[in-house]
Amino acid sequence: MRSIESSGERVFSVINVLLLGVFGFVCAYPVYYIILGSLSDPMAMMKHTGFLWKPYGFNLAAYRTVFENRMIPLGYLNTLWYMAAGLAVNMLFTTLGAYALSKRTMALRNPIMLLVSFTMFFSGGMIPSYLLVLRLGMVDHWTAMVFPSAINSFNLIIMRTSFQQLPEELFESVRIDGGNEWQIFFRIALPLSPAVLAVIVLYYAVYHWNSWMPAMMYMRTRSHYPLQLVLREILINNDLNSMGTGISDAADKEFVAVTLKYATIIVATLPIMCVYPFLQKYFMKGVMIGALKG
Fold it and tell me: Which CATH number among 3.90.1150.10, 3.40.1010.10, 3.30.2290.10, 1.10.3720.10 corresponds to the domain 61-294?
């Protein structure tokens, strides 16, 4: 039987929908504006002020200019490599560490967890980190983008909590049948944690895709730059000469720079935005399963 809402509940529902609609518009409109701006004519965008609801003079010149830059495809390839290698290292170390720390019988379990939690609030700093990477011989090498961030403490704690919620009786039955810890880990613990694994993969993938600070610190050769560092050069330094545009007039460069920035942002963010919907169904479930318990 359908319940009858009171007038107060209806008013609350209307206000709730309106507030969420306004909030959603505030979040979505900047992305919408950048998409339209990247498709607009540079001269028209320079003169435009206020809201933008449709492209001003549909023009793909900004995208052609972006893809003519040899650093953009090279940055894509570098980012994909750093992300693939980083995810492999991240997931291997994080899952192994979380599984070991989820065992109550592990020696020094609590002191190790204390040290792991300590790194969430305090770090050695930028200079000691650089000196460590330098002494290890990883400067200007792809390993500098992978191993210094091999384990994220927050992700490790989420994964550990998820493993702790698995029934210990299941592990005992495997041990009785002659299974060892490696078999339990790969055949029981990991297959029973797909939602949490998807969330951790998403966290690490977004980190590696957006990572530019380690590359700025450790990379010396431009051919090793990830996409985000190339993007930073374009947006911060507005280095149109490195884009190979062939534009000589300073005023024309300023006009092109407006839509060029928008097009570069779309090119850099579109792949990770396309991947996210496929993992979204695991996101809330994985976070709740791996949530910290008091």
Answer: 1.10.3720.10
